[in-house]
Amino acid sequence: MRTPFVVGNWKLNKTIAEALALVTELKNQLGSVRGVAVGVAPVFTALHSVAKRLEGSSIATCAQDVFWESSGAFTGEVSAPLLADAGVTWAIVGHSERRQFFGDTNETVGKKARAALAAGLGAIVCVGEMLAERDAGRTLDIVDSQLAGGLVDIAGDVATQRLVIAYEPVWAIGTGRTATPAQAQEVHAHIRKRLTEQYGAQVAQAVRIQYGGSVKPSNAEALMSQPDIDGALVGGASLEASDFIAIVKAARPS
Ligand code: PEP
Q: Which are the catalytic amino acids?
């Protein structure tokens, strides 16, 4: 059975002090929750402090992005080995905001995923269609090309251990509009089918596929009880401890 994985993507929010206050509350309140893996993704400036505060807890510190080169003349970038050095264990790559505002492409998302995995981090590879693409009936084609670019040269044994796919329909991110459990499950099942074609059933059954897009305490359980939905990538609702804790608790297998 796959352990659900719930990650809070804080985006461009929270000072170091605010980040520490939130993770301290999460650490205290989620200590007894079993059967769910949990992570938080603060801004770069708070990563090291958050990772230190989370030492001794099972909550993972995740980066919101990563650059594909390890070091060199790349002003403004942060590499996977340096994230690991700061205590980070997972990196999100290909978030739709990175694709939309910062030029990430299927190819660069693949490079970022490979760099994260090569440095020993886990990689959360985000995919998802825009509203016009869904309306045009192109959802599965878009997800296919994002997967094809994002998963180049990732070996099956590495995928089993440290690859997570996040399906995030762009029209549901930060909009309050969520995919229905059936809409999300359809795409998740399709992603698992593609993973089966690429890696075989054993690996495909092990890889977790998170749903993201306006996940809230009120819809979390219905979404995460779908057979191919293995947790959530949570934006807005992860900024409040009580909402995020309720979502983590909703992910527990019944
Ligand atoms: C996200 O940013 O990954 C996300 C899903 O945001 P929200 O939960 O706010 O829609």
A: 95, 168
Q: Per CATH, is 5-250 categorized as 1.10.3470.10? A: no
Contacts for 211 with CB less than 8 Å, ≥ 6 apart = 166, 167, 168, 179, 184, 188, 223, 224, 229, 231, 232, 233
Q: How far is the CA of 97 from the centre of ligand 1 (A)?
A: 10
| pLDDT score, position 231 | 98
Q: Span 111-135, mean pLDDT?
A: 97
Please give the Cα distance from 63 to 221 (Å, whole number).
26
| Closest residue CA from atom 1 of ligand 1 | 235
Q: Which whole number is the average pLDDT over 36-59? A: 97
Looking at residue 107, its pLDDT comes to 98
The residues, any chain, with a CB within 8 Å of residue 155's CB and separated by 6 or more, are none
- The confidence band for 254, taking pLDDT boundaries of 50, 70 and 90, is low
CA-to-CA distance for 53 and 59, rounded, in angstroms?
A: 10
Q: Domain residue spans in the chain? A: 5-250
